[in-house]
């Protein structure tokens, strides 16, 4: 189950969730990092940036210094942080992890996206 940090309550329409499969992979990645003895030392930052072939693109990176206005989502042993501006574009979306013949990657199932490119990291909103 995911929870917002105590200082930032999420309304039901802006809820961004993390699948168990994604949470498990995030925990594995963080555990493999230097300094992994402190499990909360890093979180996966999910952000939406301008650009990409469809107008917006997703960004995923490890972050050891979350910002004061970040929304923190915990699922299992995984921590995900999202800035408020990105969260507006991720409301109702879910972070998942996919393993296929062509490779493994994080993916966002975003009901707000009206179109996306073939690579799956770029999307547009009307």
What does this structure look like?
With 126 residues, the protein is α+β, with helices and mostly antiparallel strands. The chain has a single domain, classed as Hypothetical Protein Aq_1857, Chain: A. Helices cover 15% and strands 37% of the residues. The chain has two helices and nine strands; from the N terminus they run βαββββαββββ. It has helices at 20-31, 84-90, and strands at 17-18, 43-50, 56-63, 71-75, 78-82, 94-100, 103-109, 115-116, 122-124. The strands form two sheets. It has a six-stranded mixed beta sheet with strand order 4-5-2-3-9-8. A hairpin with a 2-residue loop joins strand 4 and strand 5. It is globular. The relative contact order is 0.24. Mean pLDDT is 80; it is low at 1-13.
Quick structural overview:
The protein is an alpha+beta fold. It has two helices and nine strands.
| CATH architecture descriptor | Sandwich
Radius of gyration: 14 Å
Q: What is the CA-CA span between the terminal residues?
A: 31 Å
* Overall mean confidence score, pLDDT: 80
Shape: globular
Residue share in helix: 10-25%
Proportion of beta-strand residues: 35-45%
Major β-sheet annotation: 6 strands, mixed
Low-confidence stretches: 1-13
């Amino acid at each position: 189950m995911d929870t917002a940090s105590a200082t930032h309550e999420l309304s039901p329409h802006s809820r961004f969730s993390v699948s168990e499969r994604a949470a498990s992979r995030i925990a594995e990645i963080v555990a493999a990092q230097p300094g992994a003895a402190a499990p909360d030392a890093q979180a996966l930052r999910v952000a939406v940036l301008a650009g990409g072939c469809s107008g917006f693109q997703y960004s995923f990176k490890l972050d050891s210094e979350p910002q004061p206005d970040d929304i923190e989502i915990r699922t299992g042993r995984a921590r995900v942080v999202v800035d408020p501006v990105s969260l507006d574009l991720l409301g109702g979306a879910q972070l998942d992890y996919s393993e296929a013949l062509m490779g493994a990657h994080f993916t966002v199932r975003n009901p707000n996206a009206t179109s996306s490119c073939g690579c799956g990291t770029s999307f547009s909103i009307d």
